[in-house]
């Protein structure tokens, strides 16, 4: 999964499309040194030293495979970097470990039951590592020689001379191979691979030493080095696929488009059982390894009691991933019940979790974060403007201040300046309301809004009280 | 470091292992070269019309019946294949041993057995390849 995502990122960069800047796009990792001590500002992370250290310890346990089937809860006020820490963990895990991120409310869909959505998310976070092995012949073509029979009919015979930096050899070719070579338009100077089992020829490019053979070459010509070492190589490629991807392939009824349309619908439990059996068989034969990944559920308080009890059960499965949850709730009602519990999570599930708390940022840290975001959004900001923005972040919220960066950047560009000044901040501050001012505004003018029933509900309250 | 003797020993071990790996690599290349020459010889002998052929056995050049020659060459080819495969399998163990000495984690999935062609075809679809 992750590797596919990485490939997509590369693709976007290649076509020089404008990348959108996400709220946590500046996170590159957890910002820890080798002994897991958090650096104050590193890899886009600022502050939250204890929480980051805790996340680092969890990460090491994940890497050593010691924590599968347990859960971590990131708890803290809104805007204290819970999602940032989860993103940092995902980045630090690397491409090989599956990481799935979802929001608690994502599971409420009409097409899929809640447990199905959770099962899919869990299976997306479990990777299966497998190996593909092919014997190939890889070399630079020195000469292709095809003898046609004088009569024009009958079998063709030919010779192919291949070389690496170490050796050179001649292969006798039969009719089938000659056809392949003709089809691929292989000529002297091409670097090719031949799959020994299937005889499939693929061109890798042209050798650098032959770069001056022609004056004009198409822009699609790729130049490669002459291969080193032996001609007949054994190529081993290790792949990691998620269980969910394998499920999808096997549950589809028509065409392989199901994988790409995203809408896979429900997957029958028999299919999953078959896959589990097959994977277990591969593990027995030493053909596969399970890579427990990470499932991150943001806003976990949006799950209801059914989901929690399902998770409780799912965590006990031997192939369960590490589940990281984040919540910004205090002691509140568990969804779907009338019971009140810390973080809105049942006590029995809470008992299985390691809880990591995030604390509100201090002013100095707020300033650092805003500075990093300015860089991320290509926005130069004057020192005093940054100080003002930091004050705004402290009094309203960090998210509001971050949003002001982009807008202030636009305003400053409008007056043809490439640095954001205090006046720009003031202007956008007056243009866009923060939470508190918006509330104040509503309190003053609520009577003029539509469907205003705040007064009515107050009356109703009084009635019930009375 | 606090213990020079111990560090030196550690470094020597690493160097020795690395040298082993490098010489194995070279050996594989040399064997493959021999294998390719042998294969060329087999083809050449097959095309020969004579009933005898000249063959070098060490420093000697001897004339032998063609059947015997092709037998020798074919046996050689099998032996070379076996040797190359053995070296390749040992190489994996050695690489992981070296990584262990250098305190890095082993290469993921290196010691796995490969999937069969049919299995790989099925899984390949999950990797976004079209089935052929």
Describe the structure.
The complex is a heterodimer of chains A (466) and B (132). Chain A contains 16 helices and 19 strands. Chain A has 466 residues and is an alpha/beta fold. Mean pLDDT of chain A is 81; it is low at 1-18 and 457-466. In chain A, strands 5, 6, 7, 8, 9, 10, 11 and 12 form an 8-stranded mixed sheet that branches. Chain A has a 5-stranded parallel sheet with strand order 4-13-14-3-17, with helices on both faces. In chain A, strands 1-2 form a two-stranded antiparallel sheet. In chain A, a hairpin with a 2-residue loop joins β1 and β2 (45-46). In chain A, α11 crosses α12 (383-395). The longest helix of chain A has 17 residues, at 398-414. Chain B has helices at 4-47, 66-101, 117-126, and strands at 52-57, 60-65. Chain B is 68% helix and 9% strand. Classes of the chains: A alpha/beta (466), B mainly alpha (132). Chain A binds chain B through residues 4, 63, 96, 129-133, 166-167, 169-170, 172, 197, 229-232, 234, 236, 238-239, 241, 245-246, 248-249, 256, 259, 282, 285-289, and chain B through 25, 28-29, 31-33, 35-37, 39-40, 43, 88, 105, 108-115, 117, 119-120, 122-123, 125-128, 130-131. Chain B: Keywords: Chaperone, Cytoplasm.
């Amino acid at each position: 999964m992750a590797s596919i995502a990485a490939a997509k990122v590369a693709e976007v960069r290649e076509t020089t499309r404008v990348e959108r800047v996400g709220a946590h796009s500046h996170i590159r990792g957890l910002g820890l040194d080798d002994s897991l001590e958090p650096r104050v500002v590193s890899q886009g992370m600022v502050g939250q030293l204890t929480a980051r250290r805790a996340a680092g310890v969890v990460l090491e346990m994940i890497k050593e495979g010691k924590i599968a089937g347990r859960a971590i809860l990131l708890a803290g006020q809104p805007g204290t970097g819970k999602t940032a820490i989860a993103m940092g963990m995902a980045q630090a895990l690397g491409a090989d470990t599956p990481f799935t991120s979802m929001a608690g409310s994502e599971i409420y869909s009409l097409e899929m039951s809640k447990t199905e959505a959770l099962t899919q998310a869990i299976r997306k976070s479990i990777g299966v590592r497998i190996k593909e092995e092919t014997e190939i012949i890889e070399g630079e073509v020195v000469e292709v020689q095809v003898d046609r029979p004088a009569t024009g009919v009958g079998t063709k015979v030919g010779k192919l001379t291949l070389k690496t930096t170490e050796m050179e050899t001649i292969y006798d070719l039969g009719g089938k191979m000659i056809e392949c070579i003709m089809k691929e338009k292989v000529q002297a100077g091409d670097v090719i691979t031949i799959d020994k089992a299937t005889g499939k020829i693929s061109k890798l490019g042209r050798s650098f030493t032959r770069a001056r053979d022609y004056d004009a070459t198409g822009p699609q010509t790729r130049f490669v080095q002459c291969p080193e070492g032996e001609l007949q190589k054994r190529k081993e490629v290790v792949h990691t696929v998620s269980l969910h991807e394998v499920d999808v392939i096997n549950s589809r009824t028509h065409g392989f488009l199901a994988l790409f349309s995203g809408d896979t619908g429900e997957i029958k439990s028999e299919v999953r059982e078959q896959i589990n059996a097959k994977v277990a068989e591969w593990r027995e034969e030493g053909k596969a390894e399970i890579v427990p990944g990470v499932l991150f559920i943001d806003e976990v308080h949006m799950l209801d009691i059914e989901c929690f009890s399902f998770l409780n059960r799912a965590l006990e499965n031997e192939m369960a991933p590490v589940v990281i949850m984040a919540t910004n709730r205090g002691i509140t009602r568990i969804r779907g019940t009338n019971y009140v519990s810390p973080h809105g999570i049942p006590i029995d599930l809470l008992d299985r979790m390691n809880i990591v708390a995030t604390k509100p940022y201090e002013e100095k840290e707020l300033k650092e974060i805003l500075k990093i975001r300015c860089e991320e959004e290509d926005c130069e900001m004057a020192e005093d403007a940054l100080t003002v923005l930091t004050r705004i972040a402290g009094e309203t919220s960090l998210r509001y201040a971050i949003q002001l960066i982009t807008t202030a950047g636009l305003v400053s560009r409008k007056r043809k300046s490439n640095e954001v000044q205090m006046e720009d901040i003031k202007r956008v501050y007056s243009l866009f309301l923060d939470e508190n001012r918006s509330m104040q505004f509503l309190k003053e003018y609520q009577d003029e809004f539509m469907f205003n029933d705040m007064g009515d509900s107050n009356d109703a309250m009084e009635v019930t009280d009375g | 470091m606090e213990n020079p003797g111990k560090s030196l020993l550690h470094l020597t071990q690493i160097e020795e292992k690395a040298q082993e790996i490098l010489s194995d690599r070279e050996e594989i290349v040399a064997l493959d070269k021999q294998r390719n020459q042998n294969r060329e010889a087999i083809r050449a002998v097959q095309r020969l019309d004579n009933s005898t052929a000249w063959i070098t056995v060490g420093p000697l050049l001897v004339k032998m019946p063609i059947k015997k020659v092709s037998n020798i060459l074919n046996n050689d080819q099998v032996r070379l294949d076996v040797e190359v495969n053995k070296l390749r399998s040992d190489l994996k163990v050695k690489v992981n041993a070296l990584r262990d000495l250098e305190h890095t984690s082993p290469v993921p999935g290196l010691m796995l057995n490969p999937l069969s062609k049919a299995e790989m075809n099925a899984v390949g679809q999950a990797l976004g390849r079209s089935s052929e």
